[in-house]
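User:
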Amino acid sequence: MNRKLFIQATGYLVIVFFITSLLISCGKEEKKTEVKDKKQTADTSGRGSVTATGNSAAGKELFYMKSDVNNIACADCHSDGSNSANPMTKYFSNIQGANKRTSTYHGKFTGEEVVKNAGGATICWEFYERKKTPLTEDQIKALNDYYASVAAANSPVEIKYETIALPTRDKTKLKEVQKSVMELKGDAVKGETTFTNACGTCHGENSIVKKVPSILEDFEGNVKSITYNVRLGDGPMPFFHNPALTDQDIADISAFIMKKSGK
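Assistant: Predicted structure:
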């Protein structure tokens, strides 16, 4: 009888040992996966270093990451489908499925160049966000992966618009646009609303951008200079194409700015 109990007890011990070993093994695997995931979604705040290689999580972090130079992020101007509450996003191209487009940045990048430049993000990164080092290959791949992850069924393969800023800054055409705007009667009330939506992120009282002077205080320009900046852009300020901002919109914005600055 005792021998039988001994055999049963031994059997139980073997089973307990087997289950314990299995649980420990699973715990180690989960820990390895957790460490791997942390590496893939490393923090991209601060100076924008990225340890992840080509995954949508890292791409999303890059898309929303604020520049340490002027506090601008890609998501301030472009939509990924979830940040459309930001009024600025309606004036610029969205990034949903941008890696599959036949061309981007008004035809500057075509074919394979679209992917190589992350849909034009290489320009935004250095020119608008003023980053001192270019996007790495890993960062470009991560952005492309993020574009793919947020693509919609109706994501456009081509986005075309009218602009005199690309492929070169057409200052001859600008004179025609300036004349057209100056002939229009601006509505300061409508201009205030349009200014808030299109310009307020950078130039409003609650500007999120570093080192941007308020153009509502002691404004020294005129309708011509406003039209110049809107249609061609100026430094980190992006250009606004037509019809995202129409000539009438510019006339209204100008009327508001001139009234606000006491001119």
